[in-house]
Fold each of these.
Amino acid sequence: MRHYDTIVIGGGIMGLSCALEEVQRGKKVALFDKGKIGKKASWAASGILMSLDARKYFSSFREFYVRSTQLYPRWLEEIIAGVPQAKNVYQPGAYHIFPTHTLKGQKEYQKLEAQLDREESSLYEKISEFPPSLNKHFPPGDHQGFYFPEDGFLDARTLLCQLEMTIKNRGVDVFPDTQVSAIDSFPGKVVLESKEKNFSTENLIIATGAWLNEILSLVNLKAPLIPVKGQLFRIPRFYSEEVMIHFQRDLHLVPNGNTLIVGATTEPRVWEEDFTEDGKSELQRNLEEIFPWLGKNILEGWAGIRPRPKDRLPWIGYLNEEKNISICSGHYKSGIGMAPLSALCLSQLINGEELSFDLEAFCPLRKKGIFALEKSFL
Ligand SMILES: Cc1cc2nc3c(=O)[nH]c(=O)nc-3n(C[C@H](O)[C@H](O)[C@H](O)COP(=O)(O)OP(=O)(O)OC[C@H]3O[C@@H](n4cnc5c(N)ncnc54)[C@H](O)[C@@H]3O)c2cc1C
C-alpha cells in the first residue's frame, strides 16, 4: 500500500491549491481526480476575482473573500514565476456601469451607491467617464458607474494549467482518471481503495466541487449542496482596454486575449454540462440590451457546475473527530477568488499553525452544514 502524508481528492482550483500548500510544507502529497485535472467548474470560470455577490454581505464570507483576493498577486507570482506566457495572467480593475437614463438603471445605481456609502468603503471611485474606447458606447449623462481599482480578473485556464505544472514540479503525485471506491478512517490513518491499488494517508482532503456527495457518501456524510449550472460564451473583443465590466446582475464582460468572455447564466439544480440554445439566447438577450449593434459572432460557448451550499458559505475544515479527513469545497460563484486563502487556512489547520482567518463560519459540521448519514462515523 502506498503511503502519503496528504492525499487530496479533486483536481479543481481547490484541490490543486490545497496540494500546493501541503507540498510547500514539505509533505509527501498525492492528488486524485476521477477525470482530467482542472477541467470542471474551475475551467468554466470567467476568472473574476471579486464577484458582485461578495460586495453584498457584511459577513465573514465577504471579509474572507476580500482577504483571499488580496493574496492573489503574491500567490500568482509564486505559481507563475519564470513562465513568460503567464505574465499577464492577472489584471487589476473593474467597472460597474449603469444606464442611469432609465429608471431601473438609476435605481440600481443608487442602491449600490447607498451600500458603498454605508460601508464607508474606500475601494471605489464614482465615475461618469469610461476608458476611451468605451466612452463612445456610454455617452456621459446617460451612464454612471463605479471603478473598483482592487478588483481583478485573470485567465482561469492558464492559472489551472500552471498550478498543475507547479505542484508536479514540486513533487506531488497526480493521478487523473482515478476513482476512489472506499474510504476507511482509523486513528492516525485513512485508507483509500481504488480500482488499481490502495493508498494510506495521515490527512485526506476532499475537494470534489459540485460532486462532493459522491465522496462524502463513502464516509456516511451528506452535504446540503445545490448544483448550479453556469453558461458563458466568448465573442471578439470590441474594446481595447484591459478592464472587466459588470452590468446588470447576470452580465459581465471579461477580456481574454483578443476575445471577451460574456457570462453567465445561473441555473440551479441542473447537472448537464452542455452549452445549450437556451443559455446562448439568454446571454445574447442580456448583451443586446446594452450593445444592440453587436453582431452574433459567438466564438465558443461552454458550461460548468458550481457547488452551492444551502447557506452559501463554503466548507473548510475537519469532517471527523480523528481530524484526519477535511474538506475544502462549496465555494459557489467565488472559488477562483477564494482559493488562496481557503487552501492556506486549511493547511494551517491541518499543520497546527496559527490561522490567517478564523474558520468558525465555514466549519463543515455547522448547523445547516454537512450532516452524518450514520451517527457512528462522527
Ligand atoms: C460558468 C461559471 C463561471 C464562474 N466564474 C467564476 C469567476 O469568474 N470567479 C470565481 O471566483 N469563480 C467563478 N466560478 C465558480 C468557480 O469556478 C468554482 O467556485 C470553483 O471552480 C470550484 O472549484 P472546485 O475545485 O471546488 O470544483 P471543480 O473545479 O469542479 O473541481 C472539482 C474536481 O473534483 C473532481 N471530482 C469530482 N468527484 C470526484 C470523485 N468522486 N473522485 C475524484 N475526483 C472527483 C472533478 O473531476 C473536478 O476536477 C464560476 C463557475 C462557473 C460554472
Amino acid sequence: MVKSIWHLTLIIFFFLTLLRSTTPDPVYHFQQYLRIKTAHPDPDYPTAVSYLHELAKSIPNLQTRILNLHPHKPKPLLLITLPGSNPSLPSLLLNSHLDSVPAEPSKWLHPPFDAVKTDDGCIFARGAQDDKCIAIQYLEAIRNIFYKHPGFKPIRTVHICYVPDEEIGGLDGMAKFVESDEFKEMNVGFFLDEGQASTNDEYRVFYADRSPWNLVIKATGQPGHGSKMFDNSAMENLMKSVEVVSKFRENQFDLVKAGVARNSEVISANPVYLKAGIVADSSGDGKFVMNMQPSEAEAGYDVRLPPTVDPDLLKKRIADEWAPASRNMSFHIVEKGPLRDYAGRPLVTATNDSNPWWTVFKSAVEAAGGKLSKPEILASTTDARYMRVRGIPSLGFSPMKNTPILLHDHNEFLKDTIFLEGIKIYESIIKALSSFEGATP
Ligand SMILES: [Zn+2]
C-alpha cells in the first residue's frame, strides 16, 4: 500500500513537472522579446514581428496578418485579430510599438538587451517599460482568457497592432497604417495605447497627449563694432525675448511647483539652442569674432501644448511678446502633431460616463483588483494622437504600479510580479470590452 502511494505520488509529480515545462511562461516570453534589438537607429523589425507572430499562433482563435507599410523599407506591421460574433459593432484596438530608443550599455547595471532577471524578479532591458511589456501582456491575457474560459465568445472584434517607428514620430508607422484599407475595414471604436509606470499602488491612465511645437525666434539688427553702444542690435533684441520667454516658463512652472497643475497640464517652453555670432575662421575650433556685434541671432524652443490650450492665443502671444516685429523679430513654428480632431475639437478622450468605453474600461480594471488614479494628460506624445484626430476615443494605459518611471532612462526595468499582475488586468479589460454590447458614440 505504502509502495503504491509512493508510486502514485511519483507519477503525479512527473506529470506536474511535464505540465510545468510545457505551460507557456509569460515572463520568459517577455525576456525573449526584450532580447530582440528593436532600438533605433537600426531596429530589427522582421525578427520582432516573427517572434510575436509565432507567439500569437500558439494562442487559440487568433488570426494574424503582416502588412508592409513602406514599399522600399522593412517596416512591417503585425496585425492580430480575435474575431467577435457581431462584426458590425465597432472594434477594440490594442496598440504596442515595436521600436525603442537606444541605450548606452556602459551606463547600465546589466546589458540593456540581455533582459537579465535579478534575484528579486526585476527584468532589466531597454523597452521593459516602453513598451514591450504591453506587447506580451496583450497576448498572454488572451491566452489566459481561453485557458480559463474555453467557451468564451467575444462579441466585439479585438485587434492588436504592433507598429514600427513610434519613437521617431510614426510617419512610416501609425500614420501610414491609419490611411490603409485594412485600418478602415477594422471600424475601430476604442483604442488602447501605452501609458506610463506609477510609483504608487494606483494605475495611471492618460486621456490626451501634449502637442509639440518646434519654435524658432529670430532677431535681426544693425551690425556694429564690438565697442559701440547702440539700440536694437540683433543680440539685444533676442536677449530681451529670451527673458520674456523665461518669465513665461517660470510662471507655468510655478503652477506645477505649487501643485495647482501637473507638469503635463501647463505649456512648457524649454530653450534648446542659441545661435549667433560670426565664426572667426573655418578651422572649426569654435572661435568667434569678438569685436563685432552680429546682425542675426536666433533661439530654438521645444514648446509643448496641452490640448486645453487655444493654439491661436499662444501664437498671438508669440507674435506680440516673444518675437515682436517692433523689435525686428520674426518666428517660425513647426507643429509636430495635430491639435484638433477632424471636427475641430480638442484631442481629448472623455473620462466620464459620457464615454461608455471609459465606464467599461474602469469597471474592468477595478474588477481585477486594480485602482486607477485621476486621469492625466501625457507630457509627451504617442501614436494615440493619430486615433484621437479621427475622433476615436483613446486611452494610454500600461499597468505598471509601484514601479519607478524609467522610460528612455538608463536601467529601465520591470518586476516580474508587476508584469504578471498586468496580464490579469488586461484579461479583465479585454473580456469586458469585447463582451460590451451597448451603444457607443
Ligand atoms: Zn513608448
